[in-house]
Amino acid sequence: MMANFKKNTIKGSYYPPGDKSISHRIIILGSQALGKSVVSNLLEGEDVLNTIKAMRDLGANIKKERGKFSIYGLPPGSLFQPKNKLNFGNSGTGIRLISGLVCSNNIKTILIGDKSLSKRPMRRITEHLLKIGAIIKLRGDLYPPIRIKGIGNPIPMSFDIKIPSAQIKSSIILSSLNTNGIVKIKEFNSTRDHTENMLKSMGYNITVKQNKKFRFIKLQNDKPLKPINYRVPGDPSSAAFLITAACLLPGSKFAVKNILFNKTRIGFIQTLKSMGGNIKIIKKEKLNNEIVADIYIDQKKNLKSVIVKSSNIPLQIDEIPILSIAASFANGTSIFKGLKELTVKESNRLDLIHKNLLNMGVKSEIKGFDLYIYGNYKLKKGNAKIIHNLDHRIVMSFYIANLICEKNNIIKDKSCVKTSYPSFFKDVRKFLN
Ligand code: S3P
Fold first, then answer.
1. Fold of domain 20-221
2. pTM greater than 0.70
3. Biggest alpha carbon–alpha carbon distance for the chain
4. What's the whole-number average pLDDT of the chain?
């Protein structure tokens, strides 16, 4: 049973856990660099542990030594034939990125996942990967298991991505590491660009240009990937839960240290600021082509509603569940526009947010793919049975709602939180005053 949290504030100095997107990528790219890479502050959530296991099965030597991970990689094109199926558990990032990687290796792989991942669309990556010459089969032409017969001499192609998705882009980029010739990718510039940034830091031949809407990436495998020493910055998507809680609880004084401040990841901070969140940047630095910051929240008043336009959704795609909690207790009508991608995440998040808000006593509507939330900071009913379908971000979001609601919402089986943020409950207890 949860303690009675009412009339609380968030106080203290917080180092969020390592960023999940970057953790996946450093394991994969470190595994493609000849020599020893050393990684500190890696997220040891289940999703990343599955990526480590998959890369070991594909031939990389990854060890944990004195709290840091050492990776001894093998060059692109020389992955081992795995003995077993590669199991990615809950992770869309793991399965999609590594599908790209194995496609350009002369090996046969079967990539699988848990119940949720087995229902997530994969043709969005395979329609591109087929073009390099890999042979790929999906269950029902759409879902995992993904059966891949890779090609050792992939065809250099130009790709035009129609969905704003870093996973699609990164899958193609990883497939190109073993491609002789020039590979070109056109995609939306709102997607996270960690794969590109990391490749630049590792000395790879990649150029990135962008205009107002699109990003143009050009890759050539004429320079080897150099091993790297990498400190993984704190995950803004995990920090978003306590940052939102601090903004929702006037009187909070909360320092967040070493948080990844890449502009494709901090749309939620902009949204919270527009709602009246008093968030200030204390320090910013660039490390391995990523911006890392210390920020401070000194919250004095209640939040107000916000309208988020669809072109800004990719910048905060994983934070919509927690922002929906912020909107519920912010006076006025909030609108989050263009949430189609939210329906194909670890669960149909759009549907679950809407249903749980209604059960909690918050008026909400879905019009097309737009979410309307009629917020009211006085309305704090709670007492809902939360339906989460084992989606970690839904569980954490409605747990934070409990800090505000008069009666706690009932959340059964919170174990899925370990996929992205194993220390979440400990951290909430630590900073709640
Ligand atoms: C991720 C990209 C996003 C995000 C996911 C992690 C990544 O997915 O929702 O949690 O690490 O590339 P899409 O790129 O499919 O939007």
1. UDP-n-acetylglucosamine1-carboxyvinyl-transferase; Chain (3.65.10)
2. yes
3. 62
4. 97
